[in-house]
Write a structure and sequence with these properties.
402 residues; 76% helix
């Protein structure tokens, strides 16, 4: 009988008997196309070449990150979006990782370019910017007694400097003038503003504490953890509340935060303990299965294996990578019992009529050889021995021992 074609396969893909082409990914197999025009190996090679073209495009992007980070980032994002549906066969996970590196590198390079431009512009106005910054620092300070005198000295130093471009110079002068005029006003309103800010910070932190206390019972560990980080950032940005209120609010906020993270740690510990127990239970079941002996009691062994499989399925689900070796060991037991069952029902070759006749003929030939040896008939001995050798070969073929 003509055998069906063998499906082509590789490290990252395969072509089945119907010509469907699959790619292997960390999430499982995915159909990428079909191949009916030639051998499965040729079909697999075709999709591998398409992957290599995609990899070549990624390699080009890797070389262009420094020269054109914006284009590299855009292209990398596009390619990463297309990987999930790409009709290729290859290491898609590794390619995605390379694109992620490109994306990160492009972001770093974009930041560097922006920083370089900012530095270049800052250098052009460094001197006057420093004066303005000093003036604004004086305006924001609390040393009102010396601020007026220091501000007059800054204005004289400004007048002694050359002009920049009109727009920049006017903007900086406006800031300097605003700082100068604000010194007195700032002095008047300083204490009133300080009190108002502290009250605003108290109100804002009261809201943050209330939200934190609501989050304590949350079991959405990831999103809630992220929200607590944001709350801490917002807490710091809110400023200081009045001293007594600040201590009380911080105590409540920290208590809510600690309670949530303690619950999260306990949940993770419970999950890890459950996983460890499930793995231990499956290890025991595998050890029990490996003691089964189909040679002594095939029916009993199969019955016990079904019971072990039922208990296996009843254990909590564990990650595949944690129990893959146990899966293989249990599968090996299943294969051994199945092979033993199949061998029980194979026909005995010695019951074959041809085998019976060959055995009888061989016995006759062996007696004929003895008679020829006794009589010294060399010709008859040679003919009998040749025939015996031929029929023994036929017997080996008939019994599957060839």
């Amino acid at each position: 009988m003509e055998q069906p074609p063998v499906a082509a396969s590789g490290d990252f893909g395969r072509v089945d008997e119907e010509g469907t082409v699959y790619v292997r990914t960390p999430d499982g197999e995915r159909v990428v196309g079909s191949w009916l025009a030639g051998s499965p190996e040729a079909g697999l090679a075709y999709f591998v070449r398409k992957f290599e073209d995609l990899a070549a495009e990624v390699a080009i992007l890797e070389k262009r990150v420094d020269a054109d980070p914006n284009r590299a980032a855009t292209s990398a994002a596009r390619l990463r979006g297309e990987l999930a549906e790409a009709a290729v066969v290859g290491n898609l996970a590794a390619l995605d990782a390379r694109l992620a590196v490109i994306t990160d590198a492009a972001a770093v390079r974009q930041s560097e370019v922006a920083e370089q431009r900012a530095v270049a512009r800052a250098e052009a106005v460094t001197v006057k910017e420093a004066l303005v910054a000093e003036a604004e620092q004086l305006a924001a300070g609390d040393d009102w007694r010396h601020a007026d005198e220091q501000m007059r000295a800054l204005v004289e130093r400004w007048k002694a400097l050359g002009r920049l471009d009109r727009k920049t110079d006017d903007a900086l002068w406006t800031r300097l003038a605003a700082a100068r005029s604000g010194v007195q006003r700032r002095r008047r309103v300083h204490f009133a503003e300080l009190e108002e800010k502290r009250k605003g910070a108290q109100a804002r932190k009261t809201e943050l504490v209330a939200e934190a206390e609501k989050l304590v019972e949350s079991t959405s560990w990831g999103p809630t953890t992220a929200r607590f980080r944001d709350l801490m950032t917002e807490w710091k940005a809110a400023g200081g509340a009045p001293k007594g209120a600040e201590a009380e609010l911080w105590g409540r906020f920290r208590a809510a935060q600690d309670a949530f993270f303690a619950a999260r740690s306990a949940s993770r510990a419970e999950r890890d303990a459950g996983l460890k127990a499930a793995l231990a239970a499956r290890e025991e079941l595998v050890v029990e299965a490996e003691t089964l002996d189909p040679a002594s009691d095939a029916v009993g062994a199969r019955k016990r294996l079904r019971d072990i499989q039922r208990r296996w399925d009843a254990t909590p689900t564990v990650p595949r990578d944690s129990s893959s070796s146990l899966d293989r060991r249990l599968g090996a037991v299943e294969d051994r019992l199945r092979d033993a069952e199949q061998s029980r029902f194979r026909p005995d070759p010695t019951d074959n009529p041809l085998v019976i006749r060959l055995n009888e003929s061989i016995e006759k030939l062996e007696r004929r050889i003895k008679r020829a040896e006794q009589s010294g008939d060399a010709k008859a001995l040679a003919e009998a021995q040749a025939t015996l050798e031929t029929q023994r070969g036929w017997l080996a073929q008939a019994t599957g021992r060839a």
